[in-house]
Amino acid sequence: MNIRPEIKTAFIVIILGIAIWILLTFPFRYGLDIRGGIRVTLQCQKTEGVEITDDAVRRTIEVIRNRIDQLGVTEPSIYKEGSDKIVVELPGIKDPERALEIIGQTALLEFKDETGKTILTGSALKNAKVEFDQVGQPMVRVEMNPEGAKIFADFTSKNVGKQVFIVLDGKVISNPVIKEPITEGTGVITGRFTIDEAQKLAILLRAGALPVPVKVIENRTIDPTLGKDTMESAYRAGVIGAILVVLFMILVFRFLGLVADIALLIYVVLDLAALKLLNATLTLPGVAGIILSIGMAVDANCLIFARMKEEYAQRKTPMASLDAGFRNALRAIIDSNVTTILAALILFYFGTGPIRGFAVTLSLGVALSMFTQITITRTLLENLLSLPVFKKATKLLGL
Amino acid sequence: MKKEINFLGKRVRRVFMILSLLFVIIGMYFFFTKGLNYSIDFQSGSVIYYKLSSPLNSNQIANLRDIARSFYSKSTIQTGSNGKEVWIRTKFLEENELKRLTPEVEKVIVKYEGREITTIEPTISRELREKAILAAVLAIIVMLVYITVRFRFDFAISAIINEAFVLLATISIFAISQWEVSPSFIAAILTLLGYAINDNIIVFDRIRENSKKYPKEDFTIIANRSINQTLARTLYTVITTLLAITPLLIWGGVVLRPFILAIYLGIIIGTYSTIYIASAILCEWRELQK
């Protein structure tokens, strides 16, 4: 490629500018292990007549999402895992037990007659809200959709004086006597509710019943203080590690090392900006991956500079050895990095949660470091090595 | 010309190959008799973890053990950081059992800085383990294809045997030492497989280049020269990688420690195996062909 150095420089400056802007404006998205919260894995249970199909799982996820939206959790993540599992991650939640009760309950509401025949189910409801009776006892007012209202009106007009059973997940919660036909399509569910229970029931009824029952098979509660502590110490350790790498490069490669360090700094900026832009979830292993990549990013420079030293012994001019060093080292860098990226892609495809995050940071790091440590270092050196200072002072170059 | 170190002399390389093989055989013996110490993520069970501001005394630990064992007779209490961290491990506990256990525990541990409760049913763990094996097998196949295309088939086979060695050696170390295997361990293993193949390919690249330059030269001499020529880079990269992650090992907290430890091992094993597995096998192969 024969692009003029000035154009390359301008290109790099623009990219760096965009990256810094992203870094300053976008937030980081931290994983559960850093922010704290709960992670629950639910398994859909087979029941009589209901098979676990993809569609059933999808509808179950939909209902759970509705319920969680009503809990007001910021950035929940709900996704399918395997064929019949659903993972729910709720960062920063204050009352995990309550959340779990709301997520996991099937909440199949049924109106039954005295013979046990189901007249209506919760799917006929349009809305549900908490109200209070004259003595301040909470109750849930339900509003039915037009068809539901019609069926209920028919039923109540034919059965005045009889009982109707309101059943939730197979348990009778109230069994009022029909005093008069109910035609307007609303009704109240009374029971001995506490306010909290009534609110929970209203949420469940509004969001609808789960198409299939679910069972909690994994439940992690992660305290936010733990993750924050580790994150802070990891951050500090990362900075110290980066400084050590920078010093080592200057010590061994002198001016060349300094240029590689500048490229490394750009690498860190680009890497963090890319993670923010992709809205990648930053987990603890992910942070470790970023730090590891700082150490491995300069590998390309070590290869190139070691090669430059060899070439310099034969060719005697900095510019010629720069060219030969890059040319000869490039093949090895590309072959080795491509294999690493391939491994990372497999990790991403088969991994779960934190491991996927790790795969993203790893492959992003390798790709970006190839750009900074090869293209940027080369552009900088092409511009700088033509300066008259370096004509004689090759010691400064560490060659 | 600088003096070369004779890495690949026939006797030296065979001694190291046999030692490597012996190590893996011993490791596999442990793997099949004692197995790996899987973390809770791979087996069913519940773990309650506490981070404390002041260490527990032995009385309190005994109390905790009694409480946990009243729920499950094989429960264990593990402490770390001079008693400032506690893990209570039991069988898989149902929600309501956990609700009874934690208040009892918190009669002993009254004040804590952080708590983490994890419970896992066996179904999850099986799937995780199967996925891990599948990922490893696939990674190997993809690398085999790539190296065959870019180099030669015998290079690819040597590189894959090398990867298999790195994998088996790491598993051996974890089987013999009984260090805990957690999900980040899989990430670590795949990273160090990447690191090892990286190192391997850099040397193979030199061998490829030198073979073209000196087609008449004896292969073992070429391989040995290539290792010598890339030695400086190998050393630099080992140092920069260690410099980057060592602070994390020291100050990064307990959570990341197993991960970093595995990376450390990988760097050592990967550097060693490039010479005494990958290159040594390639030399044996070429000498057989003569």
| Total helical elements of chain A | 13
Give the low-pLDDT segments of chain A: none
Cα radius of gyration of chain A in angstroms:
32 Å
Number of spatially distinct domains of chain B:
2
Q: What is the strand arrangement across the widest sheet of chain A?
A: 3-4-2-12
Helix content of chain A: 55-70%
Compute the number of structural domains of chain A: 3
Distance between the termini of chain B: 29 Å
The major β-sheet of chain A equals:
4 strands, antiparallel
Q: Give the percentage of residues in beta strands of chain A.
A: 15-25%
Please give the alpha-carbon distance between the first and last residues of chain A.
Answer: 26 Å
Radius of gyration of chain B: 24 Å
Give a brief rundown of this model.
Chain A: Part of the Sec protein translocase complex. Interacts with the SecYEG preprotein conducting channel. SecDF uses the proton motive force (PMF) to complete protein translocation after the ATP-dependent function of SecA. The complex is a heterodimer of chains A (399) and B (290). With 399 residues, chain A is α+β, with helices and mostly antiparallel strands.
What characteristics describe this protein?
heterodimer, A: 399 residues, alpha+beta, Multidrug efflux transporter AcrB transmembrane fold, Alpha-Beta Plaits, Gyrase A, domain 2, 3 domains, four-stranded antiparallel β-sheet, 17% strand, rod-shaped, B: 290 residues, 2 domains, two-stranded parallel ribbon, 8 helices, 6 strands
Task: Describe the fold and architecture.
The complex is a heterodimer of chains A (399) and B (290). The model of chain A has no long low-confidence stretch (mean pLDDT 83). Helix content of chain A is 59%, strand content 17%. Chain A has helices at residues 5-25, 32-35, 54-71, 96-104, 146-158, 195-207, 224-277, 284-297, 299-315, 318-350, 353-385, 389-392, 394-397; strands spanning 29-30, 37-44, 77-81, 85-91, 109-112, 118-121, 125-132, 138-144, 165-168, 171-174, 186-189, 214-222, 281-282. Chain A has three domains: 5-24 and 223-397, Multidrug efflux transporter AcrB transmembrane domain (Multidrug efflux transporter AcrB transmembrane fold), CATH 1.20.1640.10; 37-105 and 210-222, Alpha-Beta Plaits; 107-195, Gyrase A, domain 2 (2-Layer Sandwich), CATH 3.30.1360. Chain A has 13 helices and 13 strands. In chain A, the strands form four sheets. Chain A has a four-stranded antiparallel sheet. A four-stranded antiparallel sheet of chain A has the order 6-5-9-10, with helices on one face. Chain A has 399 residues and is an alpha+beta fold. The longest helix of chain A has 54 residues, at 224-277. With 290 residues, chain B is an alpha+beta fold. Chain B has two domains: 10-38 and 124-289, Multidrug efflux transporter AcrB transmembrane fold; 45-120, Alpha-Beta Plaits, CATH 3.30.70.3400. Chain B has helices spanning 10-33, 58-71, 95-108, 122-150, 153-177, 183-213, 219-251, 257-289; strands at 37-38, 45-51, 76-80, 85-90, 114-120, 180-181. In chain B, the strands form two sheets. Chain B has a four-stranded antiparallel sheet with strand order 3-4-2-5. In chain B, a hairpin with a 4-residue loop joins strand 3 and strand 4. The longest helix of chain B has 33 residues, at 219-251. The model of chain B has no long low-confidence stretch (mean pLDDT 85). Classes of the chains: A alpha+beta (399), B alpha+beta (290). At the A-B interface, strand 12, helix 7, helix 8, helix 9 and helix 10 of A face strand 5, helix 4, helix 6, helix 7 and helix 8 of B. Strand 12 of chain A pairs antiparallel with strand 5 (114-120) of chain B.
